[in-house]
Amino acid sequence: MAWRIIILLFFGIFGLKAAPVEVTAMNFFSDENSGQSILSGNVFIKKEGDVLNSDKVVIYTDKNKKPIRYEATQNARFEVRLKDKSYKGSGDKFIYYVNSDIYEIIGNAYIIELETKRKIFGDKIIVDKKQKIYKVESFNKKPIRFVFDVEEK
Fold it and tell me: FRET label pair with 112: which of 10, 81, 82, 144, CA 20 to 30 Å apart?
């Protein structure tokens, strides 16, 4: 029964396309009363080319048991492919808001576009896929940082 719940939850994060989702973790706990499911210990989630690794992932669900938010903490790392570009990133916390299709990387936030080697560093990086808005924030007056090559003609 627990594995059925896990599989249903992860189809929510990655959509309902027919691609298989691979999930591994050392531990799993689900509390239907609070709407939380917790995966811990070497959490690995993969669908097609997208990968999420973390020491802990908490899945929050609504009253209908549909995922509304995913939070990866403790050494959160990811690899995704968007519009023919590959990205890797990491942060202290990685949050995905399902309904609004917004990703947040909080604390030591870092993203690199692998093809161009463009890098973004900040305390918080927000990617709103629906609105096509990207935002990088700094806390405590620390500057954000962009690293990229400029082609000269």
Answer: 10
